[in-house]
Amino acid sequence: MTERDQTSRREAMVDYQVRARGVRSPEVLDAMRRVPREAFVPADLREFAYDDTALPIAAGQTITQPAIVAMMVEALDLNGGERVLDVGTGSGYAAAVLACIAGRVFTIERIGELAELAEQALGSTGFTNVEVRTGDGSRGWPEAAPFDAIMVAAGSPTVPEALKRQLAIGGRLVVPVGSDDGVQELMRITRVGEDEYQSEDLADVRFVPLVGEAGWSESSPRPRRGFGRRTVSEADQRLVDRVVAVSEPFDSVDDLPLSGLLDRIGDARLVLIGEASHGTSEFYRARQRITRALIEEKGFDFVAIEGDWPDAARIDHYVRHAEYPPSEWTAFARFPTWMWRNEEVRGFVDWLRGHNAERAPSDRVAFHGLDLYSLYNSIAAVLDYLDEVDPEAAMVARERYSCLTPFEPDPATYARMALSPGYAGCEAPVVEMLRDLQQRHRVYAEKDGDRFLDAVQNARLVANAEEYYRSMFYGSRSSWNLRDTHMFETLEALLVHHGEGSRGVIWAHNSHVGDARATDMSRRGEFNIGQLCRARYGEAVYTIGFGTDTGTVAAASNWDEPMEVKNLRPSLPDSYERLCHETGRAGFLLPLGEDGDAEVRAGLAEQRLERAVGVIYRPETERVSHYFHAELPRQFDEYVWVDRSRAVTPLDSRALEGAADTYPFGL
Questions:
Q1: Could you tell me which residues come within 8 angstroms of residue 3 by beta carbon, excluding any fewer than 6 positions away?
Q2: How many Cβ atoms from other residues are within 10 Å of residue 474's Cβ?
Q3: Distances (CA, A) of 654 to 197, 331, 418
Q4: How many whole angstroms separate alpha carbon 399 and alpha carbon 647?
Q5: What angle, 0 to 180 degrees and rounded to 10, lies between the N-to-C axes of helices 343-357 and 281-298?
Q6: Could you read off the pLDDT of 631-662 as tens digits, one per residue?
Q7: 180-202: buried (b, 16+ CB within 10 Å) or exposed (e) per residue?
Q8: In whole angstroms, what is the distance from residue 192 CA to residue 187 CA?
Q9: Full DSSP string of 498-540
Q10: Coil, strand or helix: which one is 409?
Q11: Distances (CA, A) of 402 to 328, 426, 433, 514
Q12: Type and span of the H or E element at 149
């Protein structure tokens, strides 16, 4: 990888991993841009230098992920010229970032090999204002004190008193603290007087233990590297051991062990593939790998996603090489844009277009949307179609759909108007429009069956969306059920359209594809597409769920707010995620169906917590906002575990410049 490539990746890292998480200090952002992280990682890992993750370095240690370094440095509130103590030198990367701002940095590393390598890396990158020492960092560096700031890159059971005493008045100490040496609270201690300190909690973090006189002893029980937090009961530990014995491990989702999974899927007509969030790269990439295998080895006919029909239609036109004129709008351009406009989906779309290139039009694999949020794009699509095939019908359609026109800026306001006394509502005219289209099936479909399907589905979407927005007044249960009913009806229409024996892959959130009867949803009177598919098609359905413990995720804090790359909190005790985390494996496939291990199925049948992150992630209220009770073996036929995951990569508009007009992700 060239120096120019690394510079570009470093800029992207600052934008998407650091700034997107809320780091705003100009000094810190500039420092993160200046320090070449690749110089502080082993040569064979330099291509991963700007991935949003910690990386292994010498002596079995790790280099902290860039975003955490930036957050800690910002918490020190440096203005320039300060004397700073860095405890836990590691590779020297954090010391280099500090040296870009501070006047002088003193850094201590317990392991001599690391201290020597860090000193070499700092010298080779031109940081002459850093002094490296080998020693017990928990005792500080008394002869160089006082310090304006101290940063500790290892978890301590308490705040080391020696470090507090070495702060100057007004100085700040940032240190991970926790009685569990695998998970801590990041704290900022400010010295406000000779014997007076103020303390603030900043974030949940996971650091290696601070070993030393004021930290953990060398002989203390230590967590397994990269995992830790062992809190399971003896019975659960036996279950964990059994999961290890029967699951199919992998190190990367790009190398999933697919042969066994394909055998278990067998002759299923529908394969529903979930995700535990709408912003996790590994979920998208694993789903892509499985889907490619289903298309190449089992001849599946279409992919249907939890996305809006007209947006997906742009993708479909592209991957099936359809001769339609370019659209005036961009696919998946409304909130949450990152859910489908990301590099992971783009890779699959480009692959599918290539796969279809040498096939007859009738044999090309299609790409469809199941969702119903695209009310006004669907209206426009129906009108465009009728303008071409039946101008008189188009005039009638415009009249019928005009009822909804006033609510285009905010469709949710329609719910309030529909309940107003004397307001007739739009239900009757939009349902009539759908009925008229369906009755003209023979006349219209003879001209182009695919385009007729598109028009009818858009008209169905308008009718169902009208009901969906009208139902919002009554609460989430009715609107949720309407939405999943619409997705199921769309799926059934696709099976009919693609012909007897056609087979489809569905991409949607775990909460849509896993059988709702196995979750809290059922107790709330909610159902989902997974339950409806199972009830209708039985064993011809195979469902795959996903889970992860920690890492990062692309999500917003509230609807219609900007995307952020957020840290996932470690999974809660009594959750399926914690149980899987305790296996110590980076990833695995776990069969849960009738052919799965009886002991594992029985153990996992005990109801536990399960995490679900959508386009919104609120870690501060995670238990209430993102966990529910479930019975995993009843919910899914297969479970894919990724212990540490990272956020999807949103499409960079610069990468799309010069793309063909027909490219669905165009500007």
A1: none
A2: 11
A3: 48, 17, 43
A4: 45
A5: 10
A6: 999 999 999 999 999 999 998 766 566 566 66
A7: ebbbbebbbbbbeeeeeeeeeee
A8: 16
A9: H-TT--EEEE--HHHHS-GGGBHHHHTT---HHHHHHHHHGGG
A10: coil
A11: 21, 9, 12, 38
A12: strand 147-152
The answer to whether 511 and 612 have CB atoms below 8 angstroms apart is yes
* 86: its two tokens: 């860095």
Count of C-beta atoms within a 10 Å radius of residue 124? 11
CA-wise closest residue to 566 among 623, 609, 614, 610: 614
279 near 557, Cβ under 8 Å? no
Start-end of H helices in 228-308: 234-246, 258-265, 281-298
Which two tokens mark 665? Answer: 């992700």
User: Model confidence over 326-357: pLDDT tens digits?
Assistant: 555 577 888 899 999 999 999 999 999 999 99
CA-closest candidate to residue 252, choices 649, 666, 545, 645: 645
Tokens encoding 390? 């039946």
Helix (H) or strand (E) holding 27: helix 26-34
d(CA 198, CA 191): 6
Bridge partners for 63 per DSSP = 55
CB 66 within 8 A of CB 50: yes
d(CA 82, CA 328): 55
- Average the pLDDT over each of 109-123, 288-302, 512-526 and give the range with the smallest value: 512-526
Residues forming beta bridges with residue 329, ordered by sequence position: none
The residues near 395 (Cβ < 8 Å, ≥ 6 apart) are none
Structure tokens given for 254: 């790009």
How far apart (Å, rounded) are the C-alpha atoms in residues 201 and 418? 47
Read off the DSSP letter of residue 211: B
Token pair 């277009």 in the structure block, residue: 353
Tell me how far apart the alpha carbons of residues 526 and 136 are, in angstroms, rounded to a whole number. Answer: 57
CA-to-CA separations, 195 to 122, 157, 159, 164, 198, in angstroms, rounded: 36, 21, 15, 10, 10
Is the pLDDT score of 205 beyond 80?
A: no
Looking at residue 93, the DSSP 8-state letter turns out to be H
Question: In terms of Cα–Cα distance, which of 439, 417, 436, 435 is closest to 426?
Answer: 417
**Residues found in the chain:** 667
Longest dimension (CA), the chain: 91
Site of tokens 């695209």: 374
Residue 111, CA atoms < 13 Å, CB-side half-sphere:
18
CA distance 604 to 243: 10
349 in Cβ contact with 663 (< 8 Å): no
Distances (CA, A) of 157 to 68, 184, 421: 20, 9, 64
- Say how many Å lie between the first and final Cα of the chain, rounded: 28
Q: 267-323, pLDDT tens digit by residue?
A: 999 999 999 999 999 999 999 999 999 999 999 999 999 999 988 998 999 999 987
Is 332 exposed, middle or buried, given 0-12, 13-18 or 19+ CB atoms closer than 10 A?
A: buried
Q: Distance (Å, rounded) from C-alpha 544 to C-alpha 140? A: 51
Q: Which run of H or of E encompasses 639? A: strand 638-645
Phi, psi of 63 (to 5 degrees): -100, 130
Nearest to 610 by CA among 587, 589, 633, 584: 633
Closest CA to 140 of 215, 222, 216, 70: 215
Strand-pair partners of 185: 177, 204
Are the C-beta atoms of residues 108 and 163 closer than 8 Å to each other?
Answer: no
- The DSSP line for 531-565 is HHHHHHHGGGEEEEEEEEEEEEEEEBSSTTSPPEE
Whether the pTM exceeds 0.70: the reply is no
Do the Cβ atoms of 498 and 301 come closer than 8 Å? yes
The residue behind tokens 């199925």 is 601
